[in-house]
Structure formats: C-alpha cells, structure tokens
Design a protein that fits this description.
Layout (H helix, E strand, L loop, with lengths): L25 E4 L5 E4 L5 E2 L2 E2 H17 L5 E7 L5 E7 L8 E6 L4 E5 L11 E5 L3 E8 L8 E7 L4 E5 L11 E4 L5 E7 L8 E6 L4 E5 L11 E4 L5 E7 L8 E6 L4 E5 L11 E4 L5 E7 L8 E6 L4 E7 L5 E8 L5 E7 L8 E6 L4 E9 L2 E9 L4 E7 L8 E6 L4 E7 L7
Antiparallel strand pairs: 1-2, 3-4, 5-32, 6-7, 7-8, 8-9, 10-11, 11-12, 12-13, 14-15, 15-16, 16-17, 18-19, 19-20, 20-21, 22-23, 23-24, 24-25, 26-27, 27-28, 28-29, 30-31, 31-32
The chain binds 2-acetamido-2-deoxy-beta-D-glucopyranose (6 copies) and calcium ion.
Keywords: Signal
Pfam families: FG-GAP_3
InterPro entries: FG-GAP, Integrin_alpha_N
Length: 422
Amino acid sequence: MPIAAWVLCAIVVSVLASIDNVTKPSIAADENGTLHINTTGRVMINGIDVVNALAQATQQLLYLSQSSTVFFSSTVVSKSTFGPRSVYAADLDGDGVKDIISASQDDGKVAWYRNEGSGTFSSQIVIFDGDNLVRSVVAADLDGDGDMDVLSAIGYDADEVAWYQNNGTGGFSGKRVIASNIKGAHSVFAADLDNDGDLDVLSADLHDNKVSWYRNNGSGQFSQRLVISDETEFVHCAYAADLDGDGDLDVLSASFDDDKIAWYRNNGGGDFSSQIVITTRTDGATWVSAADLNGDGHLDVLSASQNDNKVAWYRNDGSGNFSGTWIISTTAYGARVACAADMDGDGQLDIISASSNDDKIMWYRNEGKNGFSPQMIARVASGAWSVYAADLDGDGDLDVVSASDSNSEIAWHRNNGRSPFG
Ligand SMILES: *[C@@H]1O[C@H](CO)[C@@H](O)[C@H](O)[C@H]1NC(C)=O
Ligand SMILES: *[C@@H]1O[C@H](CO)[C@@H](O)[C@H](O)[C@H]1NC(C)=O
Ligand SMILES: *[C@@H]1O[C@H](CO)[C@@H](O)[C@H](O)[C@H]1NC(C)=O
Ligand SMILES: *[C@@H]1O[C@H](CO)[C@@H](O)[C@H](O)[C@H]1NC(C)=O
Ligand SMILES: *[C@@H]1O[C@H](CO)[C@@H](O)[C@H](O)[C@H]1NC(C)=O
Ligand SMILES: *[C@@H]1O[C@H](CO)[C@@H](O)[C@H](O)[C@H]1NC(C)=O
Ligand SMILES: [Ca+2]
C-alpha cells in the first residue's frame, strides 16, 4: 500500500500569530498539485471572506432548491376604468414589450396602458369609449398587416362584436363593427377557424344562447354571423383549439345556466358538428380553455365555474374523448377564469385563476401525475374578474395582469422567480 506522501512545498505561514489558541494555519500542495489551505481563521481573497461567502451561497442554493413556489409582487397599473371585466396583454406599439389592454363594463371603455419597458406603464390610453358595457377584450392581427389589433364584445345595450385597427404604433381606428344585434355579446376570441391563414372571430352570445363565428377574408372584412350552436343557455365563454388532433381548430363553450362545458368538432373549413357535451356538472360555468396539462401531447380542457367555486380539467385521449372531472380547486369562490401558463418555468403547464367572491388571483402548480397544488399570486382588493399571463418585464418568466371589478383596478404581479426579494 503506497503511503500518501505529502510534499510540502510551501512554508507554513503564521499570519495569525497574535491569536494564540488558533491552530497554526498552513498552505501546502499535495502530490497531485492540489493546494490545501488549513486554518481555523478566515481566508480572505481580495478582501472577501471566502469561507463565509461560500457558506452563505450554499445556504441560498439550499433555500432555492427547496422552495418550489414562485413569488409575486403586485403593482397597480390603473384605477381609471370603472368595473373592469377583462384584461389582456399584447405588444400594441411594436416596441417588443407587451402592453396591457382592458375592457370595462360600467364606463364602456376599451383602453390600453403602454409598457414603457420593464413593467412601468403609462396612464390610460382610451381606444373606445361608449355608453355600453364592454365585457371582453383580446388582441389579434385581424387585418394581417403584422400588428396587433384589438377585438371586443360590447354587451347588453349595443350588443356588438367590434374591432379597432392598429396603425402599427398603437394608434387605433374608431370602432369597426363586425356584427350587431348579438344579444349579450359576452366573450370574444380570435382563431383561424376555416384554416385559410387569417384569424376569424368567435363570440359567446349570452342572451341569444348562441356560439357564433365570423369569417375573415384576410383584411379584416368579416362575414355575417355564422351560428355554431344554439344549444347553450346563457353562454359565457367560447374558445378554439384542435381537440381531435386533425389539424383544424374545434370550438369549446362554457354556459352558465345549463352548467355545461361542450365542444363542436370542426369538420374542416369551419363546418361544425352539433354539440358534444364534456360535462354538465360545472355549476355556473364561466370559462373554458384548452391546454396540454399532463404532457401527453393532447389538448385537455379546463373550466371555471362560479356557483360551485370550481376549477377543473378534463383529460383528452387525443381524439376528443374526455375522461372524468379532475378537480383543481373547489375553493376558488366565484371562479371566473381558468387558463394554463407555465408560471415556474419547469416546462409543465400550471393553471392561473381569478375568483370574484374571495378576491383571489391564484396559480396551481403542476406537480405531475395529474396533481396541482394551490399557490397565491395576490389577493386583489375586490372582485377579481379577469387574469392573463404574459412576460411584462422582459425577464423571461410569466407575470400576471389582473382586473378587479369592485375597486376598479388593473394591476400586474411581477414574477420574481423563486426569490421572495424581487
Ligand atoms: C479560542 O479562544 C476563544 C476566546 O479566548 C474561545 O472562546 C474559544 O473557545 C477558543 N477556541 C478553542 C478551540 O480553544
Ligand atoms: C490539513 O488538514 C487536513 C484535514 O485535517 C489534514 O489531513 C492535512 O494533513 C492538513 N494539511 C496540512 C498542510 O496541515
Ligand atoms: C492523487 O491522484 C491519484 C490518482 O487520481 C489518487 O489515487 C490519489 O489519492 C491522489 N492523492 C491525493 C492526496 O489526493
Ligand atoms: C399612428 O397613430 C398615432 C396616434 O394617432 C400617431 O401618433 C402615429 O404617428 C401613427 N403611426 C403611423 C405609423 O401612422
Ligand atoms: C376583403 O374584402 C374587402 C372588401 O370587400 C376587399 O377590399 C379586400 O381586398 C378583401 N381582402 C381579401 C384578402 O380578399
Ligand atoms: C372515442 O369515442 C368514440 C365514441 O364513443 C369511439 O368511437 C372512439 O373509439 C373513441 N376513441 C378512442 C381513441 O378511444
Ligand atoms: Ca378538429
């Protein structure tokens, strides 16, 4: 057995001689050239106590590896809307950062807030100010000129689906009506439903009990209303996604009075099947969306329902057969919105929700194996009505924008990652 031969090539140093009970510090190189520094005192390199620094860094790494949540810090964007019901984020002025858009029902406004970069927002810039209730807003390039236009549902009085054309730098045209006499236009969505390369418009029409679409000719000229279904009662939300994996977008609906989540198969070109029910047990269904929640490559369906305070999902086998109800929460009191977003950047889609009776913006971390654990984003002052995830400060993770109805507040919640300190 070879005896480990220590080759002392450095004279023992004794700089700490004044501290009498400290073991003599030493520096030595071993046979392999590894330098050994032995001391019970401090080791300073360029004025930095390296042992101490290392211990702190280790502590932090340990904390980060154990902490699986992400932290948010909330900032008010605007209180200039009255009864905001819908928020969205998109780059409206083409500067590469996402701006915030809101629709408010009590003052009938569609407005935006310019992101000055890294999450500082301008005061409100009004796009449309009418007397009517604006219930829903999204952004999409409807005329195919490369910028984000704005689309809205104007409910009850005017009952219109309308858009506002962006000139490229965030200057908007007046209201361009796509359809009027849509009784209770409640939600809008943009999607290429006839597979011709442009974005068509989908609406949920509350008082008409209809799900409708409007075919875009490519430059923002829309067809008459094309009814997909009248088999819904008090339909709150419509969404489009390819649920059967055949390459075209199918349509989903959430209807409040018949507690129903249903879909309509696109047979190609925007020819839709009759209603296929996913569930009739979402009491007061308010929202539906689709996302691959279990990572099997198929788009699952996600719902929010107000009366049973529920966020739930329905697993898709890939051909549009949905199995069971997978509960995410039954304590999202007055659930309004549920949609998917990877909040912790682990590659699995998490879920965010807004619930108006407990004023909460929540996220549910995807734990794998079909499990989700609830995490708080913010308790907004009152009546959390809408939520949308987008990277607003350009740091690569998803932040959250929310609208709370009762205190008329648009706020954003910065994702600080796994650090509580920002
Ligand atoms: C060294 O001296 C300090 C102060 O006199 C004392 O607190 C400490 O316990 C001593 N350490 C050892 C290893 O004897
Ligand atoms: C440094 O400490 C280690 C571990 O106690 C010991 O094996 C080694 O011989 C020491 N080196 C010197 C140069 O004192
Ligand atoms: C030096 O390297 C050899 C080969 O990797 C290894 O067996 C030996 O233990 C090393 N010596 C010391 C003091 O680490
Ligand atoms: C767009 O409209 C805004 C506001 O009216 C105006 O300031 C801007 O110059 C316009 N931009 C272009 C490219 O026309
Ligand atoms: C769409 O319709 C409008 C009005 O009829 C027309 O001016 C425009 O050229 C059409 N666009 C396309 C891409 O067909
Ligand atoms: C989906 O359901 C339909 C109708 O029940 C059935 O014919 C079909 O085989 C199912 N598909 C799969 C992949 O199970
Ligand atoms: Ca399809």
